[in-house]
Design brief:
The structure holds two protein chains of two kinds. Helices cover 78% and strands 0% of the residues of chain A. Chain A contains seven helices and no strands. In chain B, strand 10 and strand 11 form a beta hairpin. Chain B starts with a helix and ends with a helix. Classes of the chains: A mainly alpha, B alpha/beta.
Chain lengths: 120, 709
């Protein structure tokens, strides 16, 4: 699986990120690093505990990372969640959190596939 | 500059490790990156590292403290004035941006990050701030210098008065120091009334408080005993006389210094209770400046020796003043005096401490630049705008084109001013092949410059390169000062360069002119011997087969002309001859004054030489005033002597001397070196030469030599 194929699988825009970061090596490095990024776990915990200010902040962070890596699909759902939480809880938030969770799973799965295909 | 120090530190404050890592990767090669995972940590790092951090990249949405809170904290500690902040955020809403700018942010980077933009913004911001810091120091230095000059003039003037008074030379200085201490104390005890600049102006004006004494008769001024009523009445007029002197100044009437000095001169003997002179002002009617100087004057008078009294100690003087034994002052003045009392002896002992003065001017400058009196929010906005205006102003003023060259990506980034001046975009990709760059630089200059930079080392990375650049269609001399950037790996890799191009056209031309002056004879403007010799050697080497002639001639009876008509005439005669010589030679010929009345001509020839020499010889003859010009001329040819300068010169010289040893006064002649002459040759050689070249001067003596050419 190529990096570009990985981006297609996770609903990202490879050409766009290459235009900005200008190095396939960097993109690969940060794509793999995304697996270790803790923002999503923090988001889950704060949603569970009802700390919506913290949930806004973590959603915001996740959104920022996705934006930088051109993970367009996950960016879109996390950005919507972020806006839904900007001024505290809103009725749309839980639904958008579920959507974000789905997209996160899809993204992580695509990156894992890619990781597995890299010759050691 | 050591390579270690030169790597600037950038602090990245972002709660996402990923984002920090991406930014660090974009910048890491050239900067030391410090990371903070939240706002509180960022503030802590800035405090610990003090002035070490060159730039802060700041996220807005963060735990503990958000980006706005960090900016507010930086405003409280005034760190924002020295440390540029670039906001990184996806929050591009107008209110967010405006708020960040109001809080002193310099620039914005929006997500998603673009490697080029991040890099460029960081480089630009660092360049601008580095410049600005240098400029603030420079301005402070200049303000200090001009202030020092003014202080000196005022001191000299006041010492004239002191000298007449028989006061110690320190009185003026003491009054000034006390005045400044009192003013600073006044600022501390209530709302600050005086800026640093005010204090310095009032201190300066205090030196003039007794200037009116210049008009008081000396027998009254220096009378050891008590003054009679009549004498005292005259003495008292020094206040109004001083004020009049200032009032009648034809210029500078609007200067704060003159206005303040007027108040001080006129009213430094007024009393708070209205019983002083000359106007009997009471309480707040007396300007604060005059009150302060009056108190300073009284204190120093008490503690100094005067013709009519010995000195009191510091403690006695303070006690006497506070007891109301020496005039009456306002309660505020008494309070201030008590507050500064413990510090007075040391302050007067130490006199003015140069570094402190320097520091105070630095503060004044900072204050001026920062316009303290504006309200806080407006001030911040104003600051941002001022930075921009000031930077572009100074950049224009210095004619500096700042640039950064990076190998990867291969590009040159110009400062906005530089780009505008050159008519280039701010980023030029692949500059080695850019038509615009190549039109400005000759390609071999690009190669030379690149070679010079590559052959630097991390320890000595700076180069200077002077060259002609075509800017706006005009070729002008520029000096490029650049610093190669080397990576920190082992072995270090050349990664590019930063630098600036300064327009040195005028200076360069002056230098060239100076060189020309150094190589020419100051009387006649012709080349001097040593530079002519250099040029001739170059010609001889360039074309070893060329036919050249070296001619040396001098004026016959020049000593006689000097003795008869004077040396001034002699000088004029030499100038006249030099002018004629200049007019009678051809473009490529070299003419020089060898020394005294001896001249030299060097020329290439193809045709028979003799007619050329005859033409030149005759063109130089004629009358100057009453003096009939007569020359003796020796000619040596490379055909006979060879291409060695010394040989040529010796040969021409020998030919000349063969004439000189012959009969004088018969008018001059020219002689060709024939290979047998030496300076010691006997006179018989002359007839041979005469017969060959003819007594040219005599043959053509009826021609009007000047009219021929």
């Amino acid at each position: 699986m190529t990096l570009k194929e990985c981006f297609e699988a996770l609903g990202g825009n490879y050409d766009e990120v290459l235009g900005r970061l200008r190095s396939e090596r960097l993109i690969q490095k940060f794509t793999l690093k995304f697996l270790e990024d803790g923002s999503y776990d923090l988001l889950c915990r704060s949603m569970e505990s009802g700390d919506y200010a913290e949930a806004f902040r973590t959603a915001h962070t996740l959104k920022g990372v996705c934006q930088n890596l051109s993970f367009t699909r996950l960016y879109s759902s996390s950005a919507q969640l972020c806006e839904a939480l900007r001024n505290g809880f809103t009725p749309e938030a839980p639904g958008l959190f579920d959507l974000t969770t789905q997209d996160y799973a899809l993204t992580v799965a695509a990156i894992r596939d890619f990781q597995a295909s890299i010759p050691q | 500059m050591t390579p270690l120090r030169s790597r600037q530190k950038i602090l990245i404050a972002d709660d996402s490790e990923m984002n920090r890592a991406i930014l660090a990767d974009m910048l890491g090669d050239e900067y030391d990156i410090i990371e903070a995972e939240n706002g509180a940590r960022a503030v802590q790092i800035m405090q610990e590292q003090d002035e070490e951090i060159a730039l802060l990249l700041l996220d807005i949405v963060m735990p503990k403290m958000d980006g706005f809170q960090v900016l507010e904290e930086m405003n409280n500690s005034r760190l924002i004035e020295d440390l540029p902040v670039i906001i990184i955020s996806a929050e591009t809403g107008a209110t967010q941006v405006e708020r960040a700018y109001q809080l002193g942010a310099t620039d914005f980077i929006t997500r998603p990050f673009d490697a080029l933009i991040v890099h460029k913004r960081v480089v630009n911001t660092l360049l601008l701030y580095a410049n600005q810091k240098k400029l603030v120091e420079l301005v402070a230095e200049q303000v200090y210098d001009s202030e020092l000059q003014r202080n000196m003039m005022t001191d000299i003037l006041s010492h004239i008065v002191e000298f007449r008074n028989g006061e110690s030379g320190l009185h003026i200085q003491h009054v000034r120091i006390l005045t400044q201490l009192l003013l600073e104390q006044l600022n501390r005890s209530g709302a600050p009334l005086f800026s640093s600049k005010d204090i310095s102006v009032i201190g300066l004006a205090s030196a003039l408080h007794d200037i009116g004494k210049i008009a008081i008769p000396e027998h009254i001024l220096n009378k050891p005993g008590k003054l009679t009523d009549e004498e005292f009445a005259i003495m008292k007029t020094h206040t109004t006389l001083g004020a009049q002197i200032l009032d009648k100044l034809p210029i500078y009437q609007d200067q704060p210094l003159v206005k303040v000095a007027y108040q001080i001169c006129r009213w430094h003997h007024e009393r708070w209770d209205g019983r002083g002179y000359p106007d009997g002002l009471r309480g707040d009617e007396i300007p604060l400046t005059a009150q302060v100087v009056a108190l300073a004057d009284v204190y120093d008078a008490l503690t100094s020796v005067r013709v009519y009294k010995g000195p009191y100690s510091h403690e006695e003087a303070i006690r006497m003043i506070l007891n109301g034994e020496c005039g009456v002052f306002s309660p505020a003045m008494y309070e201030c005096l008590q507050a500064i009392s413990p510090r007075i002896p040391a302050a007067l002992q130490g006199g003015e401490d140069a570094p402190n003065v320097r520091q105070s001017f630095f503060d004044t400058t900072q204050e001026l630049l920062h316009r303290e009196n504006l309200s806080v929010s407006r001030r911040t906005l104003q600051l941002v705008e001022q930075e921009r205006v000031r930077n572009s102003f100074f950049a224009e003023l210095t004619d500096e084109i700042q640039f950064e060259f990076t190998m990867n990506p291969l590009q040159v980034t110009l400062s906005p001013f530089g780009a505008q001046k050159l008519g280039f975009p701010e980023v030029i990709k692949d500059p080695h092949h850019n038509p615009g760059v190549l039109a400005m630089f000759q390609s071999q200059m690009v190669i030379q410059l690149s070679d010079m930079l590559r052959s630097t080392s991390p320890g000595q990375p700076v180069i200077t390169y002077d060259c002609l650049l075509k800017v706006g269609g005009e070729e002008r001399w520029h000096r490029i000062v650049a610093r190669a950037t080397w990576s920190s790996d082992e072995p270090p890799r050349y990664t590019g360069a930063i630098g600036k191009a300064i327009d040195i056209h005028e200076t360069h031309l002056q230098l060239v002119d100076l060189e020309r002056q150094a190589s020419s004879d100051s009387l006649t403007g012709l080349l001097n011997h040593s530079s002519a010799q250099k040029q001739i050697r170059i010609r001889l080497n360039e074309r070893p087969r060329g036919k050249y002639a070296l001619v040396i001639f001098d004026l016959d009876l020049f000593k006689h002309a000097n003795d008869t008509y004077g040396h001034l005439f002699g000088d004029e005669l030499l100038k006249h001859l030099a002018d004629k010589l200049r007019r009678s030679i051809r473009g490529g010929d070299i003419v020089a004054r060898v020394g005294g009345d001896e001249f030299l001509i060097f020329m290439e020839y193809k045709d028979p030489l003799e007619p050329i020499i005859r033409r030149i010889f005759n063109s130089l003859l004629g009358k100057f005033g009453d003096f009939e010009i007569s020359l003796s001329m020796g000619v040596a040819q490379t055909e006979l002597v060879g291409h060695d300068y010394n040989d040529l010169f010796r040969a021409a010289d020998s030919a000349l001397y063969t004439i000189k040893r012959g009969q004088r006064g018969k008018g001059g002649r020219y002689v060709f070196y024939d290979g047998t002459m030496t300076k010691e040759t006997d006179a018989s050689a002359i007839s041979d030469i005469d017969s060959r070249s003819g007594g040219a001067a005599e043959e053509e003596e009826n021609h009007d030599a000047e009219g021929m050419f």
